[in-house]
Amino acid sequence: MRSDLSPSSRAASTLAALTVLALGAGTAPALAEDPTPPAPATVGIGHAVTEEYQRGAFHVNTWTDAPSATVTAVSAKIRKGDTVVAAVPALTQATWNQNYFSLAAGEALKLVEDGGTIPELGKYAIDITATDSLGNTLTRTDAGTLDFTLKPQLDIGFSAPSWNDRSTRPSGTLVGVQPGSGDLVPIPGRGITVQRLTAEGTPAQTATTDDKGAFTGESYGDVKIGEEFRVSYAENSEQVHGSADFTRGLLGYNSRRVNVTATADKARVLPGEKVTVTGRMTDPNNADAPVADQQVRVSLASGYYGTPVTQTVSTDADGRFSAQLPATPGIRVDGWTVSSTDPFLYFAGVNGQLAMPQEARVLVARGTLAADGKVNVIGAFRPWYNPKQWFSWTSPETLLLENSADGRTGWRTIATASLGNNSYPAFYNLNGRSQGGFFRVRHVLSNEFTESTSVTFRMVRTSTRIIGVNANPEPVRKGAAMTVTGTLQQAVGGVWKGYGNAPVTLWFQARGSTAWKQLATGRTAANGAVTFRTTATVDGSYTIRHNGDGTHFNAPAAYNDYVDVR
Q1: Is the distance from CB of 262 to CB of 276 less than 8 angstroms?
Q2: Measured on CA atoms in the order 358, 364, 370, 373, is the torsion positive or negative?
Q3: pTM of this prediction?
Q4: Which tens digit of pLDDT belongs to each residue from 287-321?
């Protein structure tokens, strides 16, 4: 493992290497040209390449042009100038490529101090000798360069900003991965570039590594969580070759911790109203003394996430604060929250439930009033600020069908419908009974939606009745003729008047039976009177009925006249 990596030793080593190269170049003898060119080599050797992550190892491609021959042996020598510092008698042939030979990472060359033969860090020539299965041999001098240098590696961290000191200092280490052993060696005396990435226009600074490879940058103020810094370094020398960079963001603060409690003045706020949230901030590290002049953010929330309805207020001398928040139409709200505006001031989440019903509308599509008094109204229920046909809510919503004589007072419920939270789309169907008048559909106030009422509409029919039902004679002889009379009336202006030329029917129920049988049909005279003639057969009761039309109700059950047949 290398321990001497100071700049002076690195410079001396570099100078000595340069001197040797210069002397060799100046004393080399001149060579006469051979007029006969050599025969082409049968064996070929490619470029020897240092492994990227283990610089004590390398690989080379070889081949042979001899027919039916293969390369069987490859060896290497590592030298500095004319001095061989390591000999590799056999490189390992790859199973996946018979021409690929390498010095495996597990057999990597090492420094003398690590049990190897390489005297020092630096760059060395690689000579390769290859032999094929027919005995053809080739040696390629300077087939490649063994880059036996440290591979630089960087790391960075931050001092945590705090309530009293809101700045941060980036710091870290620069080490080199040593060839062969893989040891991490400190690289001292180097300049590391530190750049703040998220603050535009911030100049880069340089920090110098100490004898342990550690560095500390200058202080940065007002750094936010998530801001990123990048450190970088590059060198190409006899000791260190390569570049390294590392980017990391600030992950947290050492915040001041306080206690905050808060309450709201209501559990449900309607559009146009305001909810008031009050609270207090105290210091748990100072006997819960009040914390003054600190800002908090009070918001209406949906799922405990803030909405645009927000107010920032400050604590008073007693640590108390108060905020008024308006119910804003169109925003879904299920609570309120109190949060800190200062990242260096921390308190546990403070929130509460709050219902803010959406404004809704009830639409009437159709209403009918049948002759038998049955009422049917259908329509849709919609929130004002949701134009979509499909929407959802969390609990059933109640709709009431209401009836009034004058359309202003005396409203009474004649039908109820419940729209479940899976009623999509929100159509309703209400069924009740009424003798006519004014109608409306009303949604009952809930935590989801405000109270709302449909338009008021009127549905009327004229009431009818049959009076004076009388069967004669009675008693009556079996088989004898008899008559049944009565009068049909309608309510006109609050007065009962004869209803002429209206259809009526005669019905009979034998004694002991529960079934009624229709005997005859007819129409009333101008004064509403009607007479039916029939034949007496058995004891029983007679009555007259009227079924309403498009403007009249059915007549209620008339008097039944019992006749004794003898």
Answers
A1: no
A2: positive
A3: 0.60
A4: 999 999 999 999 998 876 777 899 999 999 999 99
